[in-house]
């Protein structure tokens, strides 16, 4: 009996944790589907502005990494999951924040991506955003960025340059939130 218990304990310690993570009352699953592939939670945190906790964000990758530039440039399945945690977020101010994020991560050179950015921003305007909404922004290699709201596909935008700029909003040199970036990178 002791041998069996010791074996169970050893297996429990040796196996990587597949537990979900709870941040600010939001549970981020240990993994999600990114197209046909599985992506694991790399890290997650809270997007804050002033003293408001706006949303919880989680970064999912095909394999864990803390290298922001490598993640941005990778042509691999990945996703960002956002759950709105504040009634301060509306469709209008989320759209403005995303637009500002593209401006920051491209150094103001959004012209080459104008059509894709407008299409992406419009996905946040399709219906009003309320506290509790969940957005999954999933990059599928060879297909593009799929945007989901509460599990419903809102649109797909092609282009690796667009994907790089989009993930640069959270992981670039001028991220939306430095603390969230570090948390998404597992730091």
Report on this model:
The protein is built from 6 helices and 9 strands; from the N terminus they run H-E-E-E-E-E-H-E-H-H-E-E-E-H-H. The protein is α+β, with helices and mostly antiparallel strands and 187 residues long. It has one domain: Chalcone isomerase (3-Layer(bba) Sandwich), CATH 3.50.70.10. Helix 3 runs antiparallel to helix 4 and helix 3 crosses helix 5. It is globular, with a radius of gyration of 18 Å. The N terminus is likely disordered.
Shape by Cα distribution: globular
Count of separate DSSP helical elements: 6
**What is the CATH architecture annotation?**
3-Layer(bba) Sandwich
List the helices and strands in order. HEEEEEHEHHEEEHH
CATH topology: Chalcone isomerase
Please describe the topology of this protein.
Blueprint: H1 2-14, E1 21-23, E2 26-28, E3 31-34, E4 37-49, E5 52-61, H2 68-73, E6 78-84, H3 91-105, H4 114-123, E7 134-140, E8 144-149, E9 152-157, H5 160-171, H6 178-184
Antiparallel strand pairs: 1-2, 3-4, 4-5, 5-6, 6-7, 7-8, 8-9
Helix pairs in contact: 3-4, 3-5
Keywords:
Chalcone isomerase, 9 strands, globular, about 190 residues, alpha+beta
TL;DR of this structure?
The chain has 187 residues and is α+β, with helices and mostly antiparallel strands. The chain is 34% helix and 32% strand. It has one domain (18-184): Chalcone isomerase (3-Layer(bba) Sandwich), CATH 3.50.70.10.
């Amino acid at each position: 009996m002791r041998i069996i218990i010791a074996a169970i304990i050893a297996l429990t310690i040796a196996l990587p944790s597949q537990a979900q993570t709870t941040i600010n009352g939001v549970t981020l699953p240990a993994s999600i589907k990114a197209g046909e592939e599985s992506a694991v939670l790399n890290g997650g945190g809270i997007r804050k502005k002033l003293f408001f906790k706006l949303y919880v964000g989680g970064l999912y990758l095909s394999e864990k990494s803390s290298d922001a530039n490598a993640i941005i440039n990778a042509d691999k399945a990945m996703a960002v999951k956002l759950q709105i945690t504040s009634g301060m977020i509306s469709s209008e101010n989320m759209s403005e924040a995303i637009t500002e994020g593209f401006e920051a991560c491209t150094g103001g050179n959004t012209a080459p991506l104008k059509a894709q950015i407008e299409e992406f921003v419009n996905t946040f305007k399709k219906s009003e955003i309320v506290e509790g909404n969940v957005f999954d922004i999933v990059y599928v290699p060879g297909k593009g960025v799929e945007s989901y709201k509460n599990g419903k596909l809102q649109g797909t935008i092609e282009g690796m340059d667009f994907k790089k700029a989009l993930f640069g909003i959270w992981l670039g040199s001028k991220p939306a939130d430095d603390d969230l970036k570090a948390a998404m990178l597992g730091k």
